[in-house]
Amino acid sequence: MMWRALALGVVTGMRSQLAAALLAWRQTRGDLPEPVEGPAGLFRRRPAVGMLMLAAGEIVADKLPRTPSRLDTGPFLGRLGLGATAGAGIAAAYDRSRLAGGALGVAGAALGSWAGARYRAALAERSQVPDAVWAALEDATAIALGIAATRPPSE
């Protein structure tokens, strides 16, 4: 089950708000085996709607030319912190070590941040396909991976 923590870290690296939003959504649906208590009740019902809205806003903002690089120090450190939170949250939901889950979330966030930015830039440059197309493909990949990582074991 710890692959879920790493996967949610990768999702966080690609879209910083998405993993936490998906965890909150799954929590409100009762899809997680154990209740998850994140910092300040991050995964409770009320924050879920706001978090999903933030994730949707990030998906739109990512395409804007003024959006800073995810590899800049501030955004990168933020992604690492959010990756740790998501990794620890999913680990706790499956009664696994929060520390190990958080560490895997950080590693995944670093990987997702770096790989997402580098591959997207390389694809846009080499293919002559606009960056927005590759960004939309990255969105779809992050969403699919996040849904898979938060899917209940019975699905």
Percent helix range: over 70%
**What's the number of extended β-strand segments?**
0
Bin the strand percentage: under 5%
Q: Main β-sheet: number of strands, strand sense, barrel status?
A: none
- The whole-angstrom Rg is 15 Å
Give the number of helices: 6
Structural class: mainly alpha
Helix-strand string: HHHHHH
Which segments are poorly predicted (pLDDT under 50) over 5 or more consecutive residues? none
* Average pLDDT taken over every residue: 89
Instruction: Using the alpha-carbon principal axes, give the shape.
Output: globular
- Gap from first CA to last CA: 14 Å
Pick out its properties.
155 residues, mainly alpha, 72% helix, 0% strand
How would you explain this protein's 3D organization?
The radius of gyration is 15 Å and the shape is globular. It has 6 helices and no strands. It is mainly α and 155 residues long.
Summarize the structure.
It is built from six helices and no strands. It has 155 residues and is mainly α. The longest helix is centred in the last third of the chain and has 30 residues, at 98-127.
Topology:
Blueprint lengths: L2 H12 L3 H12 L15 H17 L11 H21 L4 H30 L3 H20 L5
Helix pairs in contact: 1-4, 1-5, 1-6, 2-3, 2-6, 4-5, 5-6
